[in-house]
Amino acid sequence: MGFYGDTFLPALEMIQKEAVDYICFEDLAELTLAILQKDRQRNPAEGYTKDLVPMLRACWKEARAKGIRLITNAGGLNPRGAAEAALAVARELGIEARVAVVEGDSVLERLEEFRPFPHMETGEPLPEEVRRRALFANVYLGARPIVEALKTGADLVITGRVADAALFLAPLVYEFDWSFDDLQRMAIGTAVGHLLECSSQVTGGNHGGRWAEIPDLDRIGFPIAEVSEDGTAIITKTPDTGGRVSFDTVREQLLYEIHDPRAYATPDVVLDFSQVRLAEVGPDRVQVSGVVGHPRPERYKALLGYEDGYMGQALIGYSWPDALKKAQATEAILRRQLERMRLPLQEIRAEYLGYNSLHGPLADPAQADQLNEVYLRLTVRTSDRRAAEQVSRVMVPLALGGPPTASGFIGFDRTRALLGIWPSLIDREPVDAGVRISVLEVRT
């Protein structure tokens, strides 16, 4: 899986066809941590991704029978809670299970040890007002603790925040006994992880090229990496599934989320992709070579999330003729009304769905008069929840008191708490000292 909410059915197909030795379920992103924090605020026992349990119900029993081991960062902000939920599934399925839990990525209770916790881009020390509002602070761990977890014989490894590619590097290090000082093997293993971490995006999904020619997206297959001890790596997919693995699909994922292709930093190695070679060596088979590894960064990346006020929003739609002009007129009405209310708003933002909500300033004004329908989405940011709640209420009377053809959603309260993000780079040694691995078991 490539994100929280991705389908796990292609993984089940992998298991049924015995196509792999390991399956890695990569669930986390910055947005995911924010979602999990809201879950945890409602119920302290939560904080892990809720798709873990249905995935295990569908996949785990057959995976256990076929010796396929599972690795996931679905633990999110509560790896221990995720492990307890997994054990409950094992009892429900009537299987023996050994679950290894990797903890220690959370440093929220240890922020004093990492002062000044400088902002990764600006160098600014963490302000005290932000620290007081902190809800979580997690470090991107590497593959080492996952390797140690695999050494316990675990059938399932659950982690919190680790670097995405580390999930996939770890079984290679474990199986081949690679040294973390072998930079070339760390580089190819991490490159493989980078290619697999977004699931079907490397097998033709979300393809920006000749996407209409990708076959059978209704049954797209998940990617597989066949890796040899010498570092030879081939990207393929589950046999007899839809999608495609080609030079184009692989290179598109290779460049995904890469800032500097000569220095892509991960906790285990810094990658240089500038000399990568991709070769189609068969149908749906692409060999990857030429990745260069440099020593790992001296510090870990950490991410702190904090309460950052509230967003209020409302949505209203208009139809042709003059759909955009009607929406623009409504925006002007709302802005004047909100100004008269003297609400403590820090920011007001308007966008027009159907015109510029995706293209922004690149939207073509020449098309504006011909639009069949346009939705105005007005949002505000404020530190006062009651002020945020006013936005949708102000919009409702415009159903009859504004421009004509108002329709669609006109709104009940759509207020949401906002989470701010503070990225930092912190010393590795204190983090590593706090990493711990525990094993939980179910015996029949």
Strands, count: 17
Largest sheet: 5 strands, mixed
> What's the alpha carbon Rg, rounded to whole Å?
24 Å
Class based on secondary structure composition and strand pairing: alpha+beta
Low-pLDDT runs of 5+ residues are none
Helix content bin: 25-40%
Order of helices and strands: HEHHEHEHEHEHHEEHEEEEEEHEEHHEHE
Describe the structure.
30% of the residues lie in helices and 25% in strands. It is α+β, with helices and mostly antiparallel strands and 444 residues long. It folds into 2 domains: 9-302 and 424-442, no CATH class; 308-422, Alpha-Beta Plaits (2-Layer Sandwich), CATH 3.30.70. Strands 1-2-5-3-17 form a 5-stranded mixed sheet, with helices on both faces. Strands 4, 13, 14, 15 and 16 form a 5-stranded antiparallel sheet that branches. A 4-stranded antiparallel sheet has the order 6-7-11-10, with helices on one face. A hairpin with a 4-residue loop joins strand 8 and strand 9 (270-272). The two termini are 29 Å apart.
Characteristic key phrases:
single chain, 444 residues, alpha+beta, Alpha-Beta Plaits, 2 domains, 5-stranded mixed beta sheet, 5-stranded antiparallel beta sheet, 13 helices, 17 strands, 25% strand, globular
Write the layout of secondary structure elements.
Blueprint: H1 9-16, E1 22-25, H2 30-42, H3 52-65, E2 69-72, H4 79-93, E3 97-103, H5 128-132, E4 134-139, H6 144-150, E5 156-159, H7 166-176, H8 183-196, E6 223-227, E7 233-237, H9 247-254, E8 264-265, E9 270-272, E10 277-282, E11 285-289, E12 292-294, E13 299-319, H10 323-341, E14 345-353, E15 373-382, H11 385-395, H12 398-401, E16 416-427, H13 428-433, E17 436-442
Parallel strand pairs: 1-2, 2-5, 3-5
Antiparallel strand pairs: 3-17, 4-13, 6-7, 7-11, 8-9, 9-12, 10-11, 13-15, 13-16, 14-15
